[in-house]
Amino acid sequence: MANFWQRALEESRDAALEEQDKEARCNNIILYTVQESEAPLVAERADEDKRFCEQLLFALNVGIANEDIQVLQLGRPLKECQDLSWSCW
After folding, report:
1. What global pTM score does this model have?
2. Domain locations along the chain
3. Which of 9-13, 29-33, 45-49, 55-59 has the lowest mean pLDDT?
């Protein structure tokens, strides 16, 4: 009987964690095929990516504060893939 309650408690915790994760991601936006920055430094590329997102969201008239924008670049930079002579996709 104790095993039943322990399993029920674990399932309840897992469901709560999953719901929190969904809420944390509900406003995420994923942009595909955005022009890559050619800036040499990672920080500069991140700044350019953030600026692009700000301009896009402003043009779409989305009410958002600059501090709400967090940019995460997925994958390798195209230049790096070309240097390696293989596809990154």
Report:
1. 0.61
2. 2-84
3. 29-33
